[in-house]
Amino acid sequence: NGGLAPGWFLDRILIEDVNTHHIYEFPCNRWLAKDEDDKQIARLLFPKAATEGKSFFILGEKKN
């Protein structure tokens, strides 16, 4: 969280299943920033539409 504008506004994440070409949308509409909104840089997102019992695990890497 450094530099001129370190925060990110996350509108949504789109994930495409490469086998079925189905696109899953995970809306957020929140800031990922230590100086905006609720000052959080991690979010728990849920798919917009039913996913037929599928589970999603999206892992990020924290960089120093």
TrEMBL record:
<protein>
    <recommendedName>
        <fullName>PLAT domain-containing protein</fullName>
    </recommendedName>
</protein>
<dbReference type="Pfam" id="PF01477">
    <property type="entry name" value="PLAT"/>
</dbReference>
<dbReference type="InterPro" id="IPR051223">
    <property type="entry name" value="Polycystin"/>
</dbReference>
<feature type="domain" description="PLAT">
    <location>
        <begin position="1"/>
        <end position="46"/>
    </location>
</feature>
<dbReference type="InterPro" id="IPR036392">
    <property type="entry name" value="PLAT/LH2_dom_sf"/>
</dbReference>
<dbReference type="InterPro" id="IPR001024">
    <property type="entry name" value="PLAT/LH2_dom"/>
</dbReference>
